[in-house]
Automatic annotation (TrEMBL):
This is Glycerol-3-phosphate ABC transporter ATP-binding protein. The chain holds residues 1 to 238 of 369 of the full protein. Residues 4-234 form the ABC transporter domain. Keywords: ATP-binding, Nucleotide-binding, Transport. One of its GO terms (cellular component) is ATP-binding cassette (ABC) transporter complex, substrate-binding subunit-containing. Belongs to the ABC transporter superfamily. It is found in: Cell inner membrane. GO terms for biological process: carbohydrate transport. GO terms for molecular function: ABC-type transporter activity; ATP binding; ATP hydrolysis activity. It is a peripheral membrane protein.
């Protein structure tokens, strides 16, 4: 069980508060998307959940566990960033298998998992290539695959498609939605792209200046934005 609760979660840098005591309940296996303009605190929130950023105040629960002080590597979480780095000297297969090999999983199990994941992402035919022999979109698929073979309970994605061209973004949206259905993981996805949010999310969290403005399904946000900011951001008639 990996529902996630943010209770009055706050982040300050010196005198500056960038996340203001936000409350959010994310259900187990939900696909939740944080949206909002640049600088509104999306990445900071995600990084606190990942354990990559210290929590200034409030409580963070993963399942029933208070994890404020649990180190990142002890949380069952995988994260994919916008600037993904593959190991350049390793094949795609090795890039994807490496994390499992470090954990000493049996080789047959690793191969099964890598091939299954590669199939879902449509990169089976690339397993013997090196990263420099791949296009940007293919590399991004490998980066996703590498994170996903671990079967994390919680999967965090920070603007994973923002370096891709529009056409590729479309096909990657489909691939990620498919992975979410297959994986049994809770997905928390950050973007400033309304189309991604509206088409992929179970629920959208709209943020502004470190505050949550509204949390609801894409349809409900579209039909009933609570203020002009949400309406403008979601693109509904104002
Ligand atoms: P977003 O991901 O929504 O674009 P961020 O979470 O990256 O926004 O940043 C939120 C705010 O926190 C921004 O105003 C940013 O300048 C500030 N910020 C982020 N990291 C630091 C830091 N290490 N020191 C000071 N301010 C920071
Ligand atoms: Mg960001």
């Amino acid at each position: 069980m990996s529902g996630i609760s943010l209770k009055k979660l706050r982040k300050t840098y010196g005198a500056l508060t960038v996340v203001h005591d936000i409350d959010l309940e994310i259900a187990d296996k939900e696909f939740i998307i944080l949206v909002g303009p640049s600088g509104c605190g999306k990445s900071t929130t995600l990084r606190m959940i990942a354990g990559l950023e210290e929590i200034s105040a409030g409580e963070l629960y993963i399942g029933d566990d208070l994890v404020n002080d649990v180190p990142s590597k002890e949380r069952d979480i995988a994260m994919v960033f916008q600037n993904y780095a593959l190991y350049p000297h390793m094949t795609v297969y090795k890039n994807m298998a490496f994390g499992l090999q470090l954990r000493k999983a049996p080789e047959a199990e690793i191969e099964k998992k890598v091939r299954e994941t590669a199939k879902t992402l449509d990169i089976e035919h690339l397993l013997n290539r090196k990263p420099k022999q791949l296009s940007g979109g293919q590399r991004q698929r490998v980066a996703l695959g590498r994170a996903m073979v671990r079967n994390p309970e919680v999967f965090l994605l920070d603007e994973p498609l923002s370096n891709l061209d529009a056409k590729l973004r479309g096909s990657m949206r489909t691939a990620i939605t498919k992975l979410h259905r297959q994986l049994d993981s809770t997905f928390i996805y950050v973007t400033h792209d309304q189309v991604e949010a509206m088409t992929m999310a179970d629920r959208i969290v709209v943020m502004k200046d470190g505050y949550i403005q509204q949390v609801d399904t894409p349809q409900a946000l579209y039909d009933h934005p609570i203020n002009m900011f949400v309406a403008g951001f979601i693109g509904a008639p104002q």
